[in-house]
Design goal:
By secondary structure, the protein is mainly beta. The chain contains 2 helices and 8 strands, in the order E-E-H-E-H-E-E-E-E-E. The protein has helices at 38-47, 65-68, and strands at residues 4-11, 17-28, 53-63, 73-82, 90-95, 102-108, 113-120, 128-136.
């Protein structure tokens, strides 16, 4: 599966604005089962007393030149979605490099935009917090 790439705008509470790139791919994905008929999906969901949540494992990297230097930070995470919703609801990433700890959480606003936040150097006195907006690049670019 191709990488999904987002161009990022990060903004700190102090007003610092940084540009970055988020790249990730789904490493474990279970294909959705059932029909694409929305009315059938809604009827099926009303018949069951529970809601299924799907979890996909993700891996990738984030590059923010003034934070990560010349090497992107490897990240691992999860995306959470429901069978009735065409997009994942939320994604949560943590750094796979212990020397450069970070946490990223975002929601899918629509098919090409994400919004959320990032904490750089989690748990240290020099922790930096950023709001995050991203726009997806086209595939194959």
């Amino acid at each position: 599966m191709d990488e999904i790439i987002y161009d990022l705008l990060l903004k700190s509470p102090q007003g610092f604005m940084l540009l970055g790139t988020l790249r990730f791919r789904v490493t474990e994905f279970e294909a959705a089962k059932g029909t694409a008929d929305v009315s059938a999906l809604l009827a099926e969901s009303l018949e069951r007393p529970f809601i299924n949540m799907d979890v996909q494992r993700l891996e990738g990297s984030i590059a923010v030149q003034f934070l990560s230097g010349l090497r992107p930070v490897p990240i691992e995470g999860l995306a959470f979605s429901f069978g009735m919703v065409p997009l994942p609801l939320n994604a949560l990433f943590n750094s796979a490099d212990p020397a450069r700890p970070l946490t990223i959480q975002f929601s899918f606003l629509d098919a090409t935009h994400i919004g959320g936040g990032m904490i750089w150097q989690v748990g240290t006195a020099r922790e930096l917090k950023f709001s995050l907006l991203g726009t997806q690049r086209g595939f194959g670019m």
